[in-house]
Amino acid sequence: MPSHLLFISTLLFGMLMAVSSSSWFTAWMGLELNLLSFIPLISSETNQFSSEASLKYFLTQALASAMILLASSAMVAEIMFSSYLLSTALLIKMGAAPFHMWFPMVAEGLGWLQFIILSTIQKIAPMALISYTIDNSYWLLIMVISTSAMVGALGGINQLMLRKLMSYSSIGHTAWMLAALLISESLWMIYFGIYCITSSTIALFFYYKQAYHVGHLISSAFHTTPQSCIMFMSLLSLGGLPPFTGFLPKWITIQELATSSYSFMAFFLILGTLINLYYYLRLTLSSFMLSSSMLKWQFVQESSVSAMTMIMMFLNIIGLMISPIVYMVY
């Protein structure tokens, strides 16, 4: 739709404006443009929770934006702890724990395409801006990384709704991205790029299957062996299991954390990843081991199934091809 293209273009423009700004005021303007462009995309969804999700998202982001203005004014006046207030506002915007409460609730009211934007593009500007405050809010970030790793792991164990499960997975990966950002911005870009490929692949798979519950992965017309294998590979890559693509950035991050005297932080990250792998395997094994009869009204055209399979294979192949190149360059 033309309106969707307009809102997506202004959303990307607001993100680029915030990232490339030279003052906190213009960064705030970019974040606000990004916010106001994403709300119509949420409201365009036809499910019954879209209006509730857009309201929750607006209230949370408006609170964080007000905190950014307050913190930037306090920084000009050289008031103590203003950098901590600014970092807290940016952490609220990206949905990092313990400021994550809004993220699963908003994700529940989104479609899968909107969820891809929320978990990838919407994290770019806050993370790029928080890189300017690392030196002044070091201990806050240490606490947030450890908390996000454990919340993202434990929160998804008992989840049966796929969007909430993927939102807790995104919170766990936010901890890894913040840890990579503590080391270097180039490592953060490597991790974020590979995370975008793997998470988008899984979200597209769920979108084409119209799967919103764990049970939908079992009783589905898309239950074929190639697609089950692709979902298996994508989920294990997102979990960071070798030799899949997602293992590479986690391997580099663990090496850098160990050499930078952050071993205690690496412990929480690895422990959270192991728990994440548990519920990723629960999704894939149920799809492999359990099957259901295909009903007549579940018929899906073979062309759409083949197109979805080709898209997912293409994204996985891209990840596998760039992994050794990225490692050699880094």
UniProtKB/TrEMBL annotation:
GO biological process, one term: mitochondrial electron transport, NADH to ubiquinone
The enzyme's E.C. designation: 7.1.1.2
Domain (NADH:quinone oxidoreductase/Mrp antiporter transmembrane): residue spans on this chain: 21-76, 78-275
Listed transmembrane segments: 62-87, 99-118, 138-158, 189-208, 229-252, 264-283, 304-327
Family, as annotated: Belongs to the complex I subunit 2 family.
Entry's Gene Ontology cellular component terms: mitochondrial inner membrane
Any single Pfam family the record assigns to this protein: Proton_antipo_M
Chief place where the protein resides: mitochondrion
Keywords: Electron transport, Membrane, Mitochondrion, Mitochondrion inner membrane, NAD, Respiratory chain, Signal, Translocase, Transmembrane, Transmembrane helix, Transport, Ubiquinone
Highest taxon above the source species: Eukaryota
GO MF, one example: NADH dehydrogenase (ubiquinone) activity
Reactions listed under catalytic activity: a ubiquinone + NADH + 5 H(+)(in) = a ubiquinol + NAD(+) + 4 H(+)(out)
Role: Core subunit of the mitochondrial membrane respiratory chain NADH dehydrogenase (Complex I) which catalyzes electron transfer from NADH through the respiratory chain, using ubiquinone as an electron acceptor. Essential for the catalytic activity and assembly of complex I. Core subunit of the mitochondrial membrane respiratory chain NADH dehydrogenase (Complex I) that is believed to belong to the minimal assembly required for catalysis. Complex I functions in the transfer of electrons from NADH to the respiratory chain. The immediate electron acceptor for the enzyme is believed to be ubiquinone.
The keyword Translocase is annotated on this UniProt entry: yes
Location of the protein in the cell: Mitochondrion inner membrane
Gene: nad2
EC class (word): translocase
Signal peptide residue numbers: 1-21
Name this protein carries in UniProt: NADH-ubiquinone oxidoreductase chain 2
